[in-house]
Amino acid sequence: MRYRNKWLILIAAVFGLFMAILDASIVTIAVPTIEQALKTDIETVTWVLNSYNLAIAVLLIPAGRVADRFGRMKLFVIGIVVFTAFSMACGLANHINLLIALRAFQAIGAAIMIPVSLTILVVAFPPHQRGAAVGIWGAVSAAAGAIGPTLGGLLTEYASWEWIFFVNVPVGVVAVIACLVLIPESRDAEGAQKIDYPGVAALSICLFALTLGLVRGETVGWSSLFILGLFAIFFVFGALFVITESIVKDPIIDLRLFRERTFSAANATMLVLGIGFFGALFLFVQYLTVVEGYSVLRAALAVTPLPATIMVVGPVTGRMSDRYGPQVFVVSGMIVFGIAMFLFSQLSGGEPYVKIFWRLIVAGIGSGLAFAPLASAAMGALGGRRQGGGRRRLQHVATGRLHARPGGPRRRLSRRAAPPSRQCPDPGDRCGPAVEPAGSGQAGDRSGDRRRGLCRVQPGGCVRRTAEVRPLRQRQADGRPGRRRC
Question: CATH: 2.60.40.10, 3.40.50.1970, 1.20.1250.20, 1.10.443.10. Which one for 6-196+248-381?
Answer without folding.
Answer: 1.20.1250.20
